[in-house]
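Q: what sequence does this backbone want?
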């Protein structure tokens, strides 16, 4: 008679599965809660303690860690010596192991969970059994996912056994499952032990949120995976209220918009992004006024773009948004009237993200994939420290200019390098992102501002650069446009050339000491 060992934390479908196994002539062995569940369902089941001749002990910490279990799993049926030893020891083979593990993830995601509780939910016997069964996959079918029950029963009914290919597939699932499980434990314990910095090894684990229709381009397959944690202000926690499924590019672009929005916490602010670069940003006393500022700064680029808001979208704002085509609108909430207005558009995605301004924890990391490896760094979580600001020109910025300089630096921090951003009156005037030299970015930002808002409006605006000026050419262009103040990190061996140019044209310049490359 074939024997199956069933010991599951997630009991979804286990009663029906066990019943079908017994109907096919299998003997069922089980432990603790699973044993009770099956017995209560009227299924004949043998206790693991009856197999081992040893009771469960240490509050259930030790149940299956016994040769009568593991020898029965690990014995290679094609090895005569293995089979001779089993017979000599009076141990029967175990032909199927059905185990899923203690709910460690669900435990650590609970509010105020203690370390002791988390540790008690680290499974020991379960991973040991499924790894043993997976190692002996040619002889033992090992199941960790209830979604595989139907496939196993179908094969048993059709062929009398589980096929080799299926057992190999199940084996692979086991090691993915245990790697994921152990990665969660390692990550949790690393934080508990307060281990900082970049360790010698890096093991990351994510869970698939969805399959994508395609990647950046239609010929690329793609999927979206999410981190595991309690951080609320992330795109993965947004609830889609309306519209078709997000695409790969939608997710990437919206993430860029949200990162920029988190720079603006004090006032109602709208961020419009295209291809993960800011194209229109406005702050004001109301979200409607903020949207008008963001839209008028670049009504061309916002078409087909992403709009994110740090305040509830009201009917007036929704009416303005509905006048153009946008891919996505994300906000902490929508009034009923606003939702009704926006949802009349079939293709717009409406996303609610309640904790939209919550940032990732200080120990979060930024990861970039390169061929053959990963680049890992801390998040660029600082704009600049006010105490580090140096006025390097004869003319100092006014309070109003300091406000606009900070606004502009927030914009350029989230634009691709080389980047230049111009701002005035808490409104983006022009953004020149992702150029191969800084003067092109500067000219692009100025030309954009002149084209959309007019040359008179650009006069008196403030300009920010994500890195230092290697030459005074950007200052020369800024002077022609009437820019009144400039902020850069400083740090070039030619800084004095730009400072002298600013003094020549009566432009105020400050250095922050904080570069914001974004590649």
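A:
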């Amino acid at each position: 008679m074939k024997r199956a060992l069933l010991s599951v934390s997630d009991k979804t479908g286990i009663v029906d599965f066990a019943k079908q196994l017994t109907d096919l002539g299998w003997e069922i062995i089980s432990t603790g809660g699973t044993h009770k569940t099956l017995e209560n369902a009227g299924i004949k089941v043998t206790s693991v303690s009856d197999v081992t001749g040893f009771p469960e002990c240490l509050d259930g910490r030790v149940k299956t860690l016994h040769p009568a279990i593991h020898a029965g799993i690990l014995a290679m049926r094609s090895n005569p010596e293995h089979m001779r030893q089993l017979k000599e020891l009076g141990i029967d083979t175990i032909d199927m192991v059905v185990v899923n593990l203690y709910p460690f993830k669900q435990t650590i995601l609970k509010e105020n969970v203690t370390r002791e509780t988390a540790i008690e939910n680290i499974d020991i016997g379960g991973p040991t059994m499924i790894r043993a069964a997976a190692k002996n996959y040619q002889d033992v079918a090992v199941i960790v996912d209830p979604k595989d029950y139907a496939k196993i029963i179908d094969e048993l009914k059709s062929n009398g056994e589980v096929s080799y290919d299926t057992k190999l597939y199940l084996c692979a699932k086991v090691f993915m499952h245990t790697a994921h499980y152990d990665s969660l434990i390692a990550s949790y314990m690393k934080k508990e032990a307060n281990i900082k910095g970049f360790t010698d090894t890096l093991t990351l684990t994510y869970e698939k949120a969805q399959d994508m229709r395609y990647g950046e381009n239609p010929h690329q397959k793609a999927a979206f995976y999410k981190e595991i944690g309690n951080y609320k202000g992330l795109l993965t926690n947004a609830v889609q209220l309306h519209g078709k499924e997000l695409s790969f590019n939608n997710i990437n672009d919206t993430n860029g918009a949200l990162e920029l929005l988190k720079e603006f916490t004090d006032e109602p602010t709208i961020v419009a992004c295209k291809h993960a670069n800011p194209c229109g940003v406005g702050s004001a006393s109301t979200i409607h006024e903020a949207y008008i500022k963001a839209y008028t700064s670049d009504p061309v680029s916002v078409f087909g773009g992403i709009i994110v808001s740090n305040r509830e979208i009201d009917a007036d704002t929704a009416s303005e948004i509905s006048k153009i085509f946008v891919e996505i609108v994300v906000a902490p909430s929508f009034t009923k009237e606003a939702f009704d207005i926006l949802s009349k558009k079939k293709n717009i995605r409406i996303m609610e993200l309640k904790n939209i301004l919550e940032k990732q924890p200080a120990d979060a990391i930024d990861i970039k994939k390169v061929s053959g490896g990963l680049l890992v760094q801390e998040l660029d979580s600082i704009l600049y420290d006010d105490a580090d600001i140096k006025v390097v020109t004869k003319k100092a910025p006014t309070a109003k200019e300091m406000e606009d300089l900070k606004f502009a630096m927030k914009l350029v921090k989230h634009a691709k390098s080389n980047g230049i951003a111009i701002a005035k009156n808490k409104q983006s005037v022009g953004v020149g992102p992702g150029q191969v030299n800084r003067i092109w970015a500067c000219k692009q930002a100025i030309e954009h501002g002149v084209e959309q808002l007019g040359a008179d409006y650009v006069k008196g605006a403030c300009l920010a650069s994500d890195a230092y000026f290697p030459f005074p050419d950007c200052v020369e262009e800024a002077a022609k446009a009437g820019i009144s103040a400039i902020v850069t990190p400083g740090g070039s061996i030619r800084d004095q050339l730009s400072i002298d140019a600013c003094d020549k044209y009566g432009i105020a310049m400050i250095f922050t000491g904080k570069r914001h490359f974004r590649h």
